[in-house]
Design goal:
402 residues; alpha/beta; six-stranded mixed beta sheet; four-stranded parallel beta sheet; 12 strands; globular
């Protein structure tokens, strides 16, 4: 008797509610599609206009919704269908829906630590008040700076309402604010869009970017960054991993399971340093030249005697400057740059560990692995799994049949 054909596995029907004009959402959708194609098959209905063209979820026989729900009205719309929902927006800071987003304090720490290593002591934040991302990102940035005994110069108060619209307030006060900031200064903006007027106003005022005002955005949208008058640096929010983690959470909800965390954060992928923030804020020209040399050639390989061939100072003077200004040795700085490059290659490429080891100036792979573990508290393999793929669960190996 012929066996009846197997019933195809159930494919969840999921609607994606995003405004695709935002690059961060496009990256997240990429991660969602990766999940649906590699882990749990979905039938996806993509609404590219978001809430400008809402759908009837009941008529479409949906199993779940995933999107950027950024207003109370949108949350109410999503809840009316009694479907599992996952939100990818942080506009609503009380998190009324299960939410996945990039780790805000980790982004702030990444920015502050990097630019303190480059000699910066003046930090500022630019973004509109009464805005979810501004409040979360600005307050996290301010809090981490405060831990280091540093002040955050805010363009506008984060919570009290302004007497005019933010655009009008910005046009009236941005130039004055930029002129009065202590220099050199690093300005961290709420997103890529808010970096554009900062750079444009600096150009009009004759403030050199990045020599006097360095700018980095919380976001990494290539389209917006190309609009900047100076190539714009940004925090890579790891949108692909955020999308993958959100899809994982939604599948758990559609199965009737309870996620371990209702609000989940994913670590950022790193910094993409472009011209707007590619600078060392140190007063001494020889020290600045040394830092630039290490930044450009740490993986060649490079050592202290090699540096002294290019910088007209003594080793003792240079070591003392590093300890005084940066708080660590020249060798520590070389290793730090190598470890940053190694982490970038692990996140962004499929190169084997031995290939990354060679590219980062190590002659032996085991030396690279031990150095990497000492710096990041993870082996290179585990770092790649956690940071490049985010929270992607590993598929169980198929069991052998006897």
């Amino acid at each position: 008797m012929a066996k009846s054909p197997k019933k195809p596995p159930h494919r969840y029907r999921v609607a994606l509610m995003f405004d695709f004009s935002y690059g961060s959402f496009r990256d997240m959708v990429d991660g969602i599609y990766e999940y649906a194609h590699t882990v749990t098959p979905w039938v996806m209905l993509t609404n590219m206009r978001g809430f400008a063209d809402p759908i009837d979820a009941s008529a479409l026989r949906l199993d779940g919704l995933i999107g950027g729900f950024s207003t109370p009205q949108q949350v109410h719309w999503a809840r009316q269908f009694n479907l599992p929902v996952v939100n990818l927006s942080i506009q609503l800071t009380d998190f009324p829906l299960p939410t996945v987003y990039a780790d805000v304090p980790a982004c702030a720490k990444l920015v502050v630590d990097y630019f303190r290593q480059r000699g910066f002591t003046n930090f500022a934040f630019f973004g509109p008040p009464l805005n979810g991302p501004t409040q979360l990102r600005g307050l996290a940035y301010e809090a981490y700076l405060a831990q280091a005994g540093l002040r955050c110069h805010h363009f506008a108060p984060l919570t009290p309402p302004l007497k005019s619209s933010f655009t009008q307030y910005m046009m009236q006060h941005l130039a004055q604010w930029l002129q009065h900031l202590p220099k050199p200064v690093l300005i961290y903006t709420m997103d890529e869009y808010h970096a554009l007027p900062v750079i444009g106003q600096c150009q009009q005022l004759g403030l050199a970017v990045p020599e006097q005002v360095a700018v980095i955005a919380c976001g990494n949208d290539p389209m917006v960054r190309r609009m900047a008058e100076v190539p714009l640096a940004g925090v890579d929010l790891n949108g692909r991993a955020v999308g993958f983690a959100a899809a994982t959470m939604l599948t758990q909800l559609m199965r009737g399971e309870t996620p371990t965390q209702r609000v989940l954060t994913v670590p950022p992928a790193g910094l993409d340093i472009q011209r707007s923030a590619d600078i060392f804020a140190v007063a001494n020209a020889d020290l600045a030249q040394t830092l630039k040399l290490i930044h450009d050639h740490a993986c060649d390989p490079l050592n202290v005697p090699g540096i002294l061939k290019h910088v007209p100072v003594t080793r003792r003077w240079l070591e003392r400057q590093f300890r005084t200004v940066l708080g660590h040795s020249i060798h520590d700085e070389i290793m730090r740059v190598r470890m940053e490059q190694a982490a970038h290659l692990l996140r962004a490429t499929d190169l084997a560990i031995w290939q990354i080891s060679e590219r980062c100036g190590f002659k032996q792979e085991h030396h690279f692995t031990s150095s990497f573990r000492a710096h990041w508290q993870l082996t290179p393999i585990h770092y790649r799994r956690q940071h490049r793929l985010g929270l992607i669960p590993q598929k169980p190996k198929p069991q052998k049949t006897v």
